[in-house]
Each structure stands twice: as C-alpha cells, then as structure tokens.
Amino acid sequence: MQQHPQLLRRPLPPKLPPVSLYRKKIHKAPLRRKIDYADEHILRGEGFKTVTATRYETLTAMANLAIASCQIYGRNALNLKGFFILNCPDLTPLAFQLVYLNLSFNDLSRFPTEVLCLKNLQVLKLRNNPIKTIPNEIQQLKFLRIFSIAFNFISELPFGLFSLIYLEELDISYNEITSIPNEIHMLRSLVKLNIDGNYLFHLPPGILRLNLIKIHFKNTFTHHRFWRENSLNSPQRLTHICSLFIVQNNIHKTYDVLPAKVQRLLKSTSRCAWCSGPKFGEGFRVIRSCDIFGASQLPILFHVCSSSCYTALKENSIFLEVLPGKRIPLNLD
C-alpha cells in the first residue's frame, strides 16, 4: 500500500502561564483634617477647656508672661518690640531689676509713664510709636544712657530731658521738632545725637559746648538756602535799647530807689552769645556755620544784644570761644 508523505504542520504557539486576575491594592493617603481658621485665636491647653481670646488679649498675655519670666529668672533686659500693645504693662515688679527696655514698634499713643518706676534703667527704646509728648518727669530716669524715640510725633523737648547727666546717645530722628532748646549743653556726657528728619532750620549755640563724636542731621531744613530768611531781624523795642544802655553804663546804680516796673525790666535779661553780657528781648539773630562733630556747615543761630555785637559776630570774628580754652572756628559764609 502506498504511503502518502507526512504533511508538515505549523507549530503551535507556546503556552502562556495563566493570568492571575487580581486587583492592585491602592494605598490612599490619610485624609488631613480641615483647619478652621475661625479658631486661630483659641488658646488651647492640655487638660483644660479651650478659652477664646482676642488677638490683643493674646498679645497682652504674652507681654505679661515676658515680665513674669524676667522676674522669675532675674533677667535685667525686657524686649516687647513689635507686640502692638496699646498700653505699657505694669513694670513695678521689675523696678530695681530692669536695665534694658525695648518698647519699639508698638501702638503707644502716650509716653509710658510706667517706665518711670525703673530706678536703674539705662537703655530705653520707644521707636515707631504714635507718642506726641515726652513728660518732664523723664528726669526721674537718672541713670539713662541711651534714649531712642525716633519715628514718633514729638514736637518739643522737655527741660527734664536735659537733666539726664549720664545720657550718651539720643535719637529723636523723624519727629516734628522745630527747635532744639539751648539747654542741650547740659548733656555733657552726650556723644551721639541723631536729629534726622525733623523740621529744623538751625541749632542752638549751646550744642557747641558738647563733646559729640557724631551728629546726624539729614533730611532737615538746615540747608544754607534757608539761612537768610530765618535770620531776619526786626527793630528792637525802645525799652530794650534803653535797658541795655542803663545796665552797660551802670546808671541804675546811681539811684537809691527804682520803680518796681523798672526793676522788673532790668532783671528780665538773658545772655548775649557774643559778649556774654546782658541781652534784653530777643536781640539780633545771626546764623553762622561751623565744621564740627564730623559734620560740615552745621548752622548755629546766635542771639546777640546789640548791633555792635551783630557786626562783630557776622563779619570780624573767625573763632568763637564757647568754653575756657575751647575755641570753635566759624565758616566765612
């Protein structure tokens, strides 16, 4: 029997392993608790009930906590900068302890009289507050060395400020001060003075008696363009001219009795900035500049008693003796 040839067949495809049907486990991140920002001023304490507090009450509590911390740990420095408090907290617990106090960048509308109880305070910073006046009682801070009250609304300086004989640095920049009292010469320990950004046209001659290392007076009206209009003079009153003539020639000593009105008039004198003699009324105004305390063309306003002293100060003199042995060169403006 004839055998047919065996036909070649296409090989079968290889068998694949059975696919396991399973679902991939998806790891989901835990859901985060939604924060309710309406509760941002809630003071929470473990084991205590929640206590609602306003933002200001929270800041006041933090300030009082800082004071308590100083008292407990015997610290002599307190920094309440940027607490935005409306009133200074009670500082009597730190009356004999505190040396440094910083109340800058707050919302104090008045000078914090609470600091007057600090018997040993040496550094007081009140920068960037809406304070309008400095009380005369600041003289109670007898050991104050550094005082900064920049960027406030101060318009005048009290006489008590010039009683701080240990004051070394005074920063009254960027206020609304229009004049510096001549009593500034009483601050004999002062070495740094910052009067930037005030409404000043000139400085008093008493400042020449100081031993300043540096003075800052930028952004003021002390440019020489303003000197002439701020040194204009009016005619002297006849009573002032007669009083000066009587005193200079000792005519009042030839009379045994003088009327009370004349006595009061002869006693109402001040000191001439040139001859150091008596001056009645405002006198004559003269602005001269000098290069001193690391500054150039520092304008000084002098009040002199008569036209002769006015001429001598304005034209003839180059040196001014403010203290025995201390002569200040004046610029020929």
How would you summarize what this structure contains?
By secondary structure, the chain is α/β, with parallel strands linked by helices.
What attributes characterize this protein structure?
333 residues; two-stranded antiparallel sheet; 14% helix
Distance between the termini: 146 Å
Number of strands: 15
What characterizes the major β-sheet? 7 strands, parallel
Structural class: alpha/beta
Please state the CA-atom Rg, rounded to the nearest Å.
38 Å
Averaged pLDDT, please? 85
Question: Topology, pairings included?
Answer:
Elements: E1 42-43, E2 51-52, H1 55-73, E3 77-79, E4 100-102, E5 123-125, E6 146-148, E7 169-171, E8 192-194, E9 214-216, H2 238-248, H3 260-267, E10 270-271, E11 278-279, E12 284-292, E13 295-304, H4 307-316, E14 319-323, E15 326-329
Parallel strand pairs: 3-4, 4-5, 5-6, 6-7, 7-8, 8-9
Antiparallel strand pairs: 1-2, 10-11, 12-13, 14-15
Structural commentary:
The model is unreliable at 37-51 (pLDDT under 50). The longest helix is centred in the first third of the chain and has 19 residues, at 55-73. The chain is of the alpha/beta class and 333 residues long. Helix content is 14%, strand content 17%. It is elongated, with a radius of gyration of 38 Å. A seven-stranded parallel beta sheet has the order 3-4-5-6-7-8-9.
